[in-house]
Amino acid sequence: MDSGFGSEVMQSPNIYCYSVLTENYQHILALVFAVKEVNENIQLLPDITVGFEIFDTYLESKLTYRAMMQLISPRNRLLPNYDCGIHGIPKAIIEGLEAVISHQLTTALGFYKIPQLLFSFDPVRMDRNQVCSFYQMVPNDTRQHRGILQLLQYFKWTWIGLLAVDNVNLEWFMQYMFPEFSKNGICFAFMESFSITGYLEEKGEFMTWILGIYNKIMNSKATVLVFYGDDPKMLILRWLMAKSQMVNTTQKAKDKVWILTAQADLKSYGRKEQSWKIQDFHGAISVGVHSNELKGFQEFLQSRNLACDKEDGFIREFWSHAFDCVIPDSVFGKIGGDNCTGEEMIESLPRNYLPISVTGHSYSIYNAVYSVAHALHAMYSSKQKVMKGGREKIQSWQLHHFLKRVSFNNSAGDEISFQDNGEIVGKFDIINWVTFPNQSFIRVKVGSQDPQAPPDQTLKINEKSIVWHNSFNQAQPLSMCNDNCHPSYRKKKKEGEPFCCYHCIPCPEGEISDKNDIDYCFQCPADKHPNKDQNLCIPKIVTFLTYEEPLGTALAIGAVSFSLITVLMLGTFMKHHNTPIVKANNRNITYILLITLLFCFLCALLFIGRPQKVTCLLRQTIFGIIFSVALSSVLAKTITVVLAFMATEPGSRMRKWVGKGLANAIVLFCSLIQIGLCTVWLTTSPPFPDVDMHSVTDEIVLECNEGSGTLFYCVLGYMGFLGLASFSVAFLSRKLPDTFNEAKFITFSILVFCSVWLSFVPAYLSSKGKYMVAVEIFSVLTSSAALLSFIFFPKWYIIVLKSELNNREQLMWRNELRK
């Protein structure tokens, strides 16, 4: 195992030194704790003791390859491929946490088919056809980046920056992950790859380069930055941020939300790093390797003691760096500083020096040991053994068959197993990093991301537990190219910019948007309409012309009033039916006309109230027939006047046409034509109750659908024809000299009638909802009132108020005077 206990610390562009990472001591203890438990478990590997060796490569290729040679050499002798004694080639290798080291070991040891349990993932070298000896103890980078994608979607962060550790990783991300991010609505303000290689010789060029990256980060509108790298590169990033802030005094640092990958941890490098402030990363979120509390591990960790654990080769380094004290050397004695007493308590250390809770990598190391132990148990249980020298001996390659099928529950209750490609079935923890002014920090688990869970349960986050950077005042940060398009607006793409950058334009009239950042506005359902702000659909009001509303009340009162007046006039005419003014121009036609006018006024009431099947069938047809009878009566009266004067001429043949029979025939004939039209209408396409949801924006209008529009306008057109015919005949006979001549009055009445109905058509077509009905009722009442007023009111006036004129002698004398 590569402990990672010693790590590079970059102090300047061309100076490196080594520093003890006290936090990584937990990884060693997790290995020791797991091996201790396995050896104490008599049911797992009875009569077999598991041992281990730890090599620290210090992140150097030379030391990495030397450690690899020692793995395949006899103990204390560098003789690769020479197997002697009981210490032969290891049965499994638990590799380090760094991708570079893991890559080097995998490439070289792949020929030996030694099971290699990895804790890092380099997607570029994942060719399962060439390398089939390793087992991934953490989910791969593809799953991790999908977890980051879900995290961005959850917080609605669409405008982000990306920093990668080198060009290779950035190229892989661009090829495999960039399309998926873009498909899910994530845009990149910038994508930078940084590496110190090639910049160490020219310090000025190096500083210009890092200041350029720093300025791009600070000037960007992206609040969220994704860092794709491991621990050493995280250290470089911290150095870059600190150095840039010291050098660039004109560029004010802006607070950002850092999204870290599982390989990148904030590390404590002791008291030497006080100038490298970590406050920039306060509130950062990482998609970390899943961990769980192991039973007894905290007690085991806290029981470590400088005096008692003399077999621990790492505890002296850990103790001196963690407690900032000096352990006296047996040869040189006290070197300098305060001596370590051995009485120091581990639980008194800041949590960033040695976490008490199990970290994701330590948890994976623990599971790796148990995976190998269970594979060995399965191998011995199946008695697949190779005998050598009278002793049982197994070869490393034999473990693969059993490792691939490992499945067990660890002491924390989590199930451990591998997929067919050797990757562990696992999930990620969402970690919130909280820093403090004294350079300490803690990890707070605020959620999880489980790729195996149902789609709607993959990501779980407790937002209340998240601590954001202080500048955000504990409000969730926003990271967008521009502000949201609020409801009632929609997005319009900005030309030449990524799709996350857009204008916000208002929705067209009649359409709404009820969410932020909608691409298209939409219309409400038929039974709803947009509100004033165009951000909500509200139910339409069901409406029709009712008696209760002022308009309906006024029209109803008008219809009843005119009906009463008509009844009054009819009663007056019937009471004085033998008087000359009533008998003039066919008394029966007068009665028919008055009765039809009465029904004309009353039929207006059929148009008021909730449309029903019966009222819809009757109101237009009854109105059409009654009005046709009225107009036919007017036409008959007019023709009677003309024929009467023509019959008075000597030798005229018209006398035989003058009489009640002709007038009755005209009324009957003209009325039958309208009755025929209405009958065809009712039998082919009759009116019916209908709902109009579109004419009026905010109303559902209950109406009578006229069925056949053609027949409806034929009925109206026929009435217009009768009115025009009556007007023509009356106009031509208006100057006939006779006291009983009604032609002038009929001319005026028909003129008003025609004017009303000619105005009716455009008014009716331009009206909507219940106002269409009101227009028709008004036209019915007005035209009927015109006939009643101009034809009958003058006669009624003479009968009631000027009765002395209602005699034959008086009327004949007035006629002579007029001549």
Question: What do you see in this structure?
Answer:
The protein has 819 residues and is of the alpha/beta class. The chain has three domains: 6-305 and 342-471, Rossmann fold (3-Layer(aba) Sandwich); 489-539, no CATH class; 550-818, Rhopdopsin 7-helix transmembrane proteins (Up-down Bundle). The protein is 42% helix and 14% strand. It has an eight-stranded mixed sheet, with helices on both faces. Strand 15 (428-435) and strand 16 (441-449) form a beta hairpin. Helix 12 (550-575) packs antiparallel against helix 14. The longest helix has 35 residues, at 613-647. The N and C termini lie far apart (138 Å).
Q: Care to count the β-strands?
A: 26
Q: Nearest-angstrom radius of gyration? A: 50 Å
Label the structural class.
alpha/beta
In terms of DSSP E residues, the strand content is 5-15%
CATH superfamily caption of the largest domain: Response regulator
Task: Please give the largest β-sheet.
Answer: 8 strands, mixed
What's the quick description here?
The chain has 819 residues and is an alpha/beta fold.
What layout of secondary structure does this protein have?
Blueprint: E1 6-12, E2 15-20, H1 25-40, H2 61-71, E3 93-94, H3 99-109, E4 116-118, E5 134-136, H4 141-155, E6 159-164, H5 167-183, E7 187-193, H6 203-219, E8 224-228, H7 231-247, E9 257-260, E10 285-289, H8 297-302, H9 315-323, H10 360-381, E11 386-388, E12 391-393, H11 399-403, E13 407-409, E14 415-417, E15 428-435, E16 441-449, E17 459-461, E18 489-493, E19 502-506, E20 511-512, E21 522-523, E22 528-530, E23 537-539, E24 541-543, H12 550-575, H13 580-583, H14 587-603, H15 613-647, H16 660-684, E25 688-692, E26 699-705, H17 709-732, H18 743-766, H19 770-801, H20 808-818
